[in-house]
């Protein structure tokens, strides 16, 4: 696994944003998989600045979701669709037609999961998937003990996740949906390039287990070890428990600049 240690979240966002710009330069209609939450925000902010600053035409770029709440009405401001439109699609000047994700309001949720996996395949697959990581090593909503071969499916949120997400619903846990649709680990691994950004000391143990620990369903992110092109971008705090931190610093520092990440 490729590990890049950066000084802080801003530097990580800049690095990943440049990788996306390079991808769009090579493939203008690339499909970019995006995650929600606070971790990827530096990426989206840096990407928007680079695109607007350069005048680059990204009108052919496509965006897809990692996950979605089940049961929120269409257009709800805290749905992940609305969040991605607000944080990624609109700032880049893209239209809603360039963006697709799972239908969390469908009557047949299982059918919606299967339809989303099919839609990703028909779109040619995800070129670059952005990921975050939980303190327990989860990616997307694939909690510990999720199948490493899982496909897009419905999952029940843990109480901890419900409590954490209540801040987006006026602090009221009763308003937080109990179920989500998430890309499965097997679906995530189908992307051509996986890029995970992790910052802060609270993510250090999960990062160490993902990179240096055994492949285990207890740490879903460890499945990235199976991928031919997975990149972990971590700040110094998140890298603090890596035994091979010095090796990773040396490797990236001596990597030819044209290779990027």
UniProtKB/TrEMBL annotation:
BP term (GO), one: glucosamine catabolic process
A GO CC term? cytoplasm
Keyword terms: Allosteric enzyme, Carbohydrate metabolism, Hydrolase
Task: Name the residues annotated as site: Part of the allosteric site.
Answer: 146, 153, 155-156
| UniProt entry tagged with the keyword Nucleotide-binding | no
State a single Gene Ontology molecular function: glucosamine-6-phosphate deaminase activity
Q: Which reaction does it catalyse?
A: alpha-D-glucosamine 6-phosphate + H2O = beta-D-fructose 6-phosphate + NH4(+)
Summary of activators and inhibitors of this protein: Allosterically activated by N-acetylglucosamine 6-phosphate (GlcNAc6P).
Q: Where is the Glucosamine/galactosamine-6-phosphate isomerase domain?
A: 10-225
Q: What is its EC number?
A: 3.5.99.6
Return the InterPro entries for the record: Glc/Gal-6P_isomerase, Glucosamine6P_isomerase, Glucosamine6P_isomerase_CS, NagB/RpiA_transferase-like
Please name the catalytic residues of this protein: 67 (proton acceptor), 136 (for ring-opening step), 138 (proton acceptor), 143 (for ring-opening step)
Quote the pathway field: Amino-sugar metabolism; N-acetylneuraminate degradation; D-fructose 6-phosphate from N-acetylneuraminate: step 5/5
Family, according to the entry, reads as follows: Belongs to the glucosamine/galactosamine-6-phosphate isomerase family. NagB subfamily.
Q: What does this protein do?
A: Catalyzes the reversible isomerization-deamination of glucosamine 6-phosphate (GlcN6P) to form fructose 6-phosphate (Fru6P) and ammonium ion.
NCBIfam families on file: nagB, PRK00443.1-4
Q: Which HAMAP family match?
A: GlcN6P_deamin (MF_01241)
Identification of the protein by name: Glucosamine-6-phosphate deaminase
Question: What species is this protein from?
Answer: Streptomyces candidus
Q: What is the lineage of its organism?
A: Bacteria, Bacillati, Actinomycetota, Actinomycetes, Kitasatosporales
